[in-house]
Amino acid sequence: MPNFRTALFAAALAFCAQTQAAVITFNNLAGTNVPGNVYVYSNQYTQMRNQSATVDGFTFASTVDEIFMRSGYANGGDTGYDAYNGTDFLMTYSTVTMLNVTATPFSVNSLDLVNWSGYGLTATLKGTRMDGTTITKLINLDTRPNNSKTVGNDFTNYALFGFTGLQSFSITSDSGNWVALDNIAVNAVPEPASLAILGLGLGALAIARRRKA
């Protein structure tokens, strides 16, 4: 029986691990028809004005002006002033708000940030929890010119603590300055239907085990 219980617990952990953890990379979105977009230009970026885009089960909405999905292509590549990490990323100079499309709580564990072209100094992160409480964090961005960072990539990874049980998560850049973000590590609570399926499956296993015994 202990072995069976261990197997059930392991199955539950495996299920949760598969459904909860994700890293939102924005890869292969530049120059494509992302749901909610307004304008698409060449193969370098997708521009959205006062719209939202759905990416990996989350919506990203600009409350002020524009969001760009910009490819890893930048003038001069890693030697240019534009932000660069070799992949696509999201860029904003206003406030971009992230919501789970299932309206279930989620956590943000870390993300990559950098000023896009050497001008932004800070970014303010704000999480609003399901109970209405909030948590904020001011990020002092790396102000070194991007063309001086030619090893690895221009972004810095920031670990976050306490951004849990969220109904929304927003990033606000310096007024009028561009901030690039990428690789948002999230944990989303499974949808009720998924949890129900898990419960039914584990229950069936338990009944089958009891009948066999």
Describe the protein's architecture and organization.
The chain has 213 residues and is an alpha+beta fold. The chain has a single domain (22-189), classed as Sandwich (Jelly Rolls), CATH 2.60.120. It has helices at 2-20, 192-212, and strands spanning 21-24, 39-41, 45-49, 52-55, 58-62, 66-70, 89-92, 95-100, 106-115, 122-129, 134-140, 156-159, 166-173, 179-188. The strands form two sheets. Strands 1, 2, 3, 6, 7, 9, 12 and 14 form an eight-stranded antiparallel sheet that branches. The chain has a six-stranded antiparallel sheet with strand order 4-5-8-13-10-11, with no helix packed on it. 29% of the residues are buried.
Tell me the CATH architecture: Sandwich
Looking at the structure, what is the overall shape? globular
End-to-end distance: 10 Å
Instruction: Flag low-confidence runs.
Output: 7-19
Could you give the order of the helices and strands? Answer: HEEEEEEEEEEEEEEH
In terms of DSSP E residues, the strand content is 35-45%
The average pLDDT is 80
Multimeric state = single chain
- Taken together, the total number of domains comes to 1
Number of strands: 14
- Computed Rg: 20 Å
Number of separate helices: 2
**CATH topology grouping:** Jelly Rolls
Structural class: alpha+beta
Binned, the helix content reads 10-25%
Give a quick account of the main beta sheet: strands, pairing sense, barrel closure.
Answer: 8 strands, antiparallel
CATH class: Mainly Beta
